[in-house]
Amino acid sequence: MDLERIAVAGYQFKNWSGTYQCQPELLFIPETIDEIREILYLAKTEKKRIRVIGCGNSPSDLCCSTDYMISMERFANVLYIDQQECLVTVQAGIHLDKLNRILEKNELALPM
């Protein structure tokens, strides 16, 4: 598998407020589970730590790293909706605004 296609060098991460920032060695933007497996194997082989990032809304430096980062932005789908049980399964990269629109269309909402 060619990870160069989904790897970004020189990426500057900054959280929403600009209070935390870092520059990982590589940012990966995978599209498939197999690509994630390959990234994990590479990180293990190269003895690199991995941080997974979403939209950068965290008020902490939790996802900052100088090693590898994985963006889940291409994993942003709703997988399952059960209106009877009020249960929704989504992928890790979904934005809350998208999720809220989908929930509203299905007469559901996030708890307060």
TrEMBL record:
<dbReference type="Pfam" id="PF01565">
    <property type="entry name" value="FAD_binding_4"/>
</dbReference>
<dbReference type="InterPro" id="IPR006094">
    <property type="entry name" value="Oxid_FAD_bind_N"/>
</dbReference>
<dbReference type="InterPro" id="IPR036318">
    <property type="entry name" value="FAD-bd_PCMH-like_sf"/>
</dbReference>
<dbReference type="GO" id="GO:0071949">
    <property type="term" value="F:FAD binding"/>
</dbReference>
<dbReference type="InterPro" id="IPR016166">
    <property type="entry name" value="FAD-bd_PCMH"/>
</dbReference>
<feature type="domain" description="FAD-binding PCMH-type">
    <location>
        <begin position="20"/>
        <end position="112"/>
    </location>
</feature>
<dbReference type="InterPro" id="IPR016167">
    <property type="entry name" value="FAD-bd_PCMH_sub1"/>
</dbReference>
<dbReference type="InterPro" id="IPR010031">
    <property type="entry name" value="FAD_lactone_oxidase-like"/>
</dbReference>
<dbReference type="GO" id="GO:0016899">
    <property type="term" value="F:oxidoreductase activity, acting on the CH-OH group of donors, oxygen as acceptor"/>
</dbReference>
<protein>
    <recommendedName>
        <fullName>FAD-binding PCMH-type domain-containing protein</fullName>
    </recommendedName>
</protein>
